[in-house]
Amino acid sequence: MRIFITGLIALTFMTIRTAAGQSGYLAGTGQISIEPDESLISLHLGGYGAPREGRFSLQWKTLTKIPAVEAITGTEDNLFIITDGNILKSGLPVNENGWQPVGKSSGMVSFTVSGSRLYAIDGKGSIFESSTSGRIKWKKIAESDPAARFITSTAGNLFVTDGKGSLWMSEIAGKTPVFAKSDMIAGVISFSSYRNKLYALTSDDRIYRKDLSSGDHRWLMAAYRNNETIREDIRQIAFAGNRIYGTGNNMVLYLGEHRTEGNLTARALAVRSGSQTAIIVNVDVCGLNDDFTGSIKKELLVKYGLPTTAVFINCSHTHFAPVSQRWLTWQEANQRPDSIFLNSEVRNGILGAVDRALSGLEPAEIWFGRGKTDIGYNRSLKDHPELYDGDVDVLRIKYANRDAESYLFMTACHPVFSTAGTLHFTISANYPGVARKLVEDRTGTVNSLFLQGTAGDINPRDNGEYISGEKLANEVIGTLRKPMTRIEGTISCFLDTIKLPVTPWSKDAILAFRKENESKTGDVYAEKNIKWADLMIENYNKGTMPDQMPVYVQTINIGNWKLVGFSRETTTGYGLGVKQMWPGKLVSVAGYTNDVSSYLPTHMHLEARNYEGLDSFFWYGMANVFPMDVDTIILERISTLAH
């Protein structure tokens, strides 16, 4: 059982209420950037299974001319290069005339720094050592394999490779290195390391990474020349001052950086009435799993005494943020999010935004308005144009003691621009980020939050994040200029778990499905299906095959405004269905809340066996699809509870 639903049975809830009749609110907002630190080097963007090679954030920035490089390495403060028999050193930042000779290369073909020591390998596999201070004076200390040509060091170990598929490792530890052999990727032309990770550049313009600190020691791709954001012919890589540097045959030094629009954030709205508080969070990631959001809720419970029912965590679902959850049937880079980005940038961003919102609580009035937009359409049920919820719901938070406002707005549409060109490889909050900035710039607001609605089957109508962002921002501002309804009343919060039965495929059916896909080499869909089949067989063998899938439904009532949030990629029918339960009331419905572990289709998707109703479950690694009457079960249960 995940942390934030511990103790819940099929349907449970916890309620908090203010004293009857009390309607004054304290409100506060906060936002924290969750842009990845440049020291994270290159991150895979989540949300797409294509292109097959993946989408990585690395791009190269031209720095300066540099002497012809035969080998390169770095420290926190310096870069070293081997050129024409000499070793040159430059401080950071590098400038064209800043290189100083510090020694002779003496036949060295690759070198590395560990602490205050410089280690090198020559063309015969011999290992040499020198101090990094003063003049370089080489001392032979060991022999590795005669074929070894590249050397690097991290975590107190030396690593050498022949570039053809063999890797040797030895502890340094003040003794003569003794190398043990293991497997390596082939085609290596440059070898480096950084923070317990090995990096290998191959002759086909790909950078691979191996994380030595994790239990999974596979080599995973970290970047490649995609001819969009990476066009440079990089032949050498090295790390210095927490950054990656590259050189080519053109005597130019490049600095690696994330290609980003710079607008990923975590944002929070806190509303308090009496002794009770509700927190609404949105974070610019494609999705989060309930174990992660549950751990955040637990931390907020310990720190602030906030019930888990009172913390609502919604994902904008941008397809252009670094991977933030595990997609086990996708390419390998999608199978494991970068732990530093997830547990530092995202986690600290959410917690920091909540901290700021709570510390900034002040008297405020809250108003609700609803507009309409046509930025989306139903991509899967095209014969049913009525199955698109174009509502744009807007909250105005008007502070009582100063001339300032904050806004929360929401609509339902996939943030999936663009699937071509440089934007496909660019970190971005997509159209929600565009809309937020336009709203803030044009109104002078302190902060704005976007919540993603039931957008599981909704794609953008227009071709461009700036078109959709502009349309949405205009509708938000237009709604703010119209009469709005004042929010008054108590706060109550609920979290319900609805467990849906699932009938897994038989072992024979899974094996037959796998066999159907084995011959389709290079087909990303067939590869996905094979990984899904292997995952299911593993579940059978371990006795972990699930027989049910939970759907979490969170309800936050702030006075006469009701916010309902579904887990998973919720399709339109649920949003429309919930609103129909309370006709004439102020009801807003979000998807992508607390847990994004599959699609949540209706019977119409299941009957059509379309992406939302069938194939998507393989992408998410689910045992099977939901039962045919899934929407009836869920909506009837919500109606019965009447939260």
List the helices and strands and how they pair.
Elements: E1 25-33, E2 58-65, E3 71-74, E4 78-83, E5 86-91, E6 100-104, E7 108-114, E8 117-122, E9 126-131, E10 139-143, E11 150-154, E12 157-161, E13 164-171, E14 180-186, E15 188-194, E16 197-202, E17 206-211, E18 219-224, E19 236-240, E20 243-247, E21 252-258, E22 265-273, E23 276-283, H1 290-304, E24 311-315, H2 339-359, E25 362-372, E26 376-378, E27 391-399, E28 405-411, H3 430-443, E29 447-452, E30 458-460, H4 465-480, E31 485-486, E32 491-501, H5 507-517, H6 524-542, E33 548-558, E34 561-566, E35 569-570, H7 572-581, E36 586-590, E37 599-600, H8 603-608, H9 611-619, H10 630-641
Parallel strand pairs: 23-24, 28-29, 34-36, 35-37
Antiparallel strand pairs: 1-22, 1-25, 2-21, 3-4, 4-5, 5-6, 7-8, 8-9, 9-10, 11-12, 12-13, 13-14, 15-16, 16-17, 17-18, 19-20, 20-21, 22-23, 25-27, 25-31, 26-30, 27-28, 32-33, 33-34
Provide a compact summary of the structure:
The chain is of the alpha+beta class. It is built from ten helices and 37 strands.
What does this molecule look like?
The protein is built from ten helices and 37 strands. By secondary structure, the chain is α+β, with helices and mostly antiparallel strands. Strands 1, 22, 23, 24, 25, 27, 28, 29 and 31 form a nine-stranded mixed β-sheet that branches. Strands 2-21-20-19 form a four-stranded antiparallel β-sheet, with no helix packed on it. Strand 7 and strand 8 form a beta hairpin. Helix 7 (572-581) runs parallel beside helix 10 (630-641). The longest helix is centred in the middle third of the chain and has 21 residues, at 339-359. The chain is globular. The two termini are 24 Å apart.
